[in-house]
Amino acid sequence: MYSKNLKDIQTALLNGDYTVEDLLVFYLDNIAQQKEHNAYVQVFKDEALFQAQALDKKIKSDSESLGSLFGAVISIKDNLCYKGHSVTAGSKMLHGFVSPYSSTVVERLIQSDAIIIGTTNCDEFSMGSTNETSFYGPVLNAVSKEHTPGGSTGGGAVAV
Fold this sequence. Notes:
It is built from five helices and three strands. By secondary structure, it is α+β, with helices and mostly antiparallel strands.
């Protein structure tokens, strides 16, 4: 089992206890096992694996240049722009839109060596409080399907 604390994850990665790729595969498997909750709109499996492998090489060859978030595997809400990736804000109206740029927060995550694993489901245009109005269908509460995951960021909440 992997630590949920980034500092501990980073220490384990530097000590060679496991690799970023191992960590990423653990998260990818977890996403696949929890698919029925509809938390994710997109999972960037191949891209994230490529980034994990590149970080593993960097850890071995140039650990001094690692960003402050190396080892962090992060999801972003489907209303944040990520260059070259679809962003819909949970709306059919934006289906097929590919962002020509990355938002500042996404740029900073990448510059800090975080790996973006995918986008999470949200209420359409993030305007809601139950996460039931997404074009992709409702997000189901991970604890009780009889309750909402809450907020327009229910996909992110359930992913955690």
